[in-house]
Amino acid sequence: MSDRQNKIVCVLGATGYVGGRLVPQLLEKGWKVRAVGRSAAKLRNRPYSFHEKCEIVEADLFDPESLRAALQDCCAVYYLVHSMQPGSNDFAGKDRLAAENSVQAAEQAGVERIIYLGGMVPDDPNISHHLKSRAEVGEILSAGKVPCTVLKAAVILGSGSASFEILRYLVDRLPVMITPRWVRTESQPISIRDVLFYLAGCLEHPETAGESYDIGGPFIETYEKLFRIYQQEAGLRKRVIIPVPFISPKLSSYWLGLVSPVPVPLAVPLVLGLRNRVVCKEFRIREIMPRELTDCRTAIRRALNKVEQEVVDTCWSDAGTLGTPEWAICGDAGYSGGTVYHSAYRIKLEGSSERLWEKVVSIGGDEGWYCCDSLWSLRGWMDKLVGGVGLRRGRRHPAEVCVGDALDFWRVLDVQPGERLLLLAEMKLPGEALLEFSLENTLVGDTELTMTARFLPRGLGGILYWWSVYPLHSVVFKGMARSLAEKSGSRIMEGPELLDGPAPRCRIPGSRGGNGDQG
């Protein structure tokens, strides 16, 4: 595999935390890379998509035909996907099916090898479902005709990783921590830089094909020690950590979901895995690919630096399905899809839209929502209490948004610079919701900003929910409009006012009038 000019490397899960960082590294090494994900629009918003050797392909692991087409002409496939997403029931069953489909597609496409990043499996019959599923995926991939390299890691430390986010929020927010006994469980964390080094290095070492390796950092640490290291590197006062025997891992996962941005459905399997000791049983890969490994303190320091500089490359929340609700697609008859409620407010501002747009795309995260932040926070806590993502996911960058980005409890569905920002709600709702900001320049050079909320209720509960929050829209939207005008230095010419009649025309990616990226 030395001739990189004519060989294509496929990365399944290219929008995920690891995949989004691996693609640029492979491109730098001279490989042709086929970045595969469920949303081409989301992939095209990654910086690497503009590289001359990068090809963007949309495919679904549960659609064998699209998967087979995505793997065609590829010499190697990186398997960096899993189904452990919020709202995903039976993630183990889905992972099993996705792996089986991938093995079959790789064999049919003539792929030479598969490289899989899995989890380290402890010597314990009572391992968590999460770790058991990751191990099962490795077994399925290895049982096929295509040689599979399995890299098994424990905790991955890096800016934006789920492990680092959990660590950061716990230590930042809790001066006193009443913890379960797993806080003293040993693990062998590894820096994301070292993970990427091993992943990319497998292509250059054909002897790794068909083999399985443990990958870990230079030291074994307890989770309590990681808390201490973070506290010291972040310059925080000493945290009081009190392990107690009566807090179950499941109960602690619910508490974790409340104080961190990681949703409860994702926190539960992660925390259940923390009760198991996961350390390297062998170190063969260090002989094949020698490297000075990153210790936990250095990894946390680097992650903190990236967070402080607000230049996180990829984030755990980048992964996930990006789907446009069918009811929002224009062109269907007015009676189709059920009753869609809407609330729209418009304000007319003096001058062009450039400065206003900068403030619109900076919304959320540390900047807040420009009005009634206490109400937004309350809504986030309510969402956390019922197992939702809550408000603390923040945003990847303070002033930039891309299709697929997480933005607090929203997901960016479409961005048209200077014209439109469309957000899809990911909080727990009795229905589906969209929030749209649209800017339009008038003939006399002024700007009209329209903010529209759309909601498709599910059952009577959804209808009651809409009408219970509807009175707040006037306060929130008018306040947001006035604040946006003030922060952008624009004089208000008219409004803000409620728009009567039908909702402003929607423009959804992939529909008529959209940008066509979603397809």
Written account of the structure:
The protein has helices spanning 19-28, 40-44, 64-71, 91-109, 129-143, 162-173, 192-204, 223-233, 249-259, 264-274, 284-288, 296-309, 354-360, 373-385, 459-487, and strands at 8-12, 32-37, 54-58, 74-79, 113-119, 148-153, 156-157, 176-179, 186-187, 190-191, 212-215, 221-222, 240-243, 341-349, 406-407, 410-416, 420-425, 431-441, 447-457, 492-498. It has 519 residues and is of the alpha/beta class. The strands form 5 sheets. A 7-stranded parallel β-sheet has the order 3-2-1-4-5-6-11, sandwiched between helices. A 7-stranded antiparallel β-sheet has the order 15-16-17-18-19-14-20, covered by helices on one side. Strand 18 and strand 19 (447-457) form a beta hairpin. The model is unreliable at 329-338 and 510-519 (pLDDT under 50).
Helix share bin: 25-40%
Main beta-sheet annotation:
7 strands, parallel
* Lateral arrangement of strands in the main beta sheet: 3-2-1-4-5-6-11
Number of strands: 20
